């Protein structure tokens, strides 16, 4: 009897369409959130810091207002999806349940993180935007007599630094959930047999 063996074939666990859609929504929304917060701190804010204080305050307020509308919705999608998967996992204490629980917990943690650490800085910057609203946007001396640690530039830079914490939380959450999806891929051997006539007859 001759045998052909082909190892290294991949298969995936069969999931319903609804579950697949939910999984994609959770992963993409969390990855989007991580990318968005990272871009705000590493791309947007460094560019904004070149502007005079009145313009900087106005630009930061525009960025902040957009975040207030988008980030909670995106976070809620990921948090809801990962919490649902963790709750409905048929194997309590399994690696998949632990990873989904971790992802959901990290996204939930971003809420108090934002309120407690970013909140005070954001409040000061919103007040800056209000106080400088009637000042010429190109006035470079608008905060000339102010303590350095309370200037708009320092506050915006501090906000960007603290905002990196949200980037880390959402990135690790996305990585944990992605690992679950990848972990469903398993390698199994596929064996094909070339059988002689006598063996086909059961002899």
UniProtKB/TrEMBL annotation:
Sorted alphabetically, the keyword list is: Membrane, Transmembrane, Transmembrane helix
User: Where is the major localization of this protein?
Assistant: membrane
InterPro entries, alphabetized: Anthrone_oxy
> Quick one: a GO cellular component term?
membrane
Q: Which residues cross the membrane?
A: 69-86, 98-118
Name one matching Pfam family: Anthrone_oxy
Membrane topology type: Multi-pass membrane protein
Q: Where in the cell is it found?
A: Membrane
Family as reported in the entry's similarity comment = Belongs to the anthrone oxygenase family.
Q: What protein does this entry describe?
A: DUF1772 domain-containing protein
Q: Tell me the organism.
A: Friedmanniomyces simplex
Q: Where is the organism placed in the taxonomic lineage, from the top? A: Eukaryota, Fungi, Dikarya, Ascomycota, Pezizomycotina
């Amino acid at each position: 009897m001759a045998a052909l063996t082909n190892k290294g074939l991949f298969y995936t666990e069969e999931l319903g369409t609804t579950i697949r859609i939910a999984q994609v929504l959770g992963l993409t929304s969390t990855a989007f959130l991580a990318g968005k917060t990272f871009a705000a701190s590493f791309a947007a804010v460094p560019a904004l810091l070149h502007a005079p204080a009145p313009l900087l305050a106005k630009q930061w307020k525009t960025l902040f207002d957009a975040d207030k509308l988008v980030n909670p919705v995106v976070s809620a999608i990921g948090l809801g999806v990962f919490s649902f998967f963790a709750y409905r996992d048929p194997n309590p204490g399994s690696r998949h349940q632990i990873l989904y629980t971790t992802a959901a917990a990290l996204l939930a943690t971003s809420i108090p993180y934002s309120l407690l650490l970013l909140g005070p800085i954001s409040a000061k910057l919103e007040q800056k935007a209000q106080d400088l609203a009637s000042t010429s946007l190109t006035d470079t001396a608008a905060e000339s007599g102010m303590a350095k640690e309370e200037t708009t530039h320092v506050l915006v830079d501090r906000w960007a630094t603290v905002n990196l914490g949200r980037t880390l939380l959402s990135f690790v959450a996305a990585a944990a959930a992605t690992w679950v999806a990848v972990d469903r891929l398993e390698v199994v051997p596929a064996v094909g047999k070339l059988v002689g006539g006598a063996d086909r007859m059961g002899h």
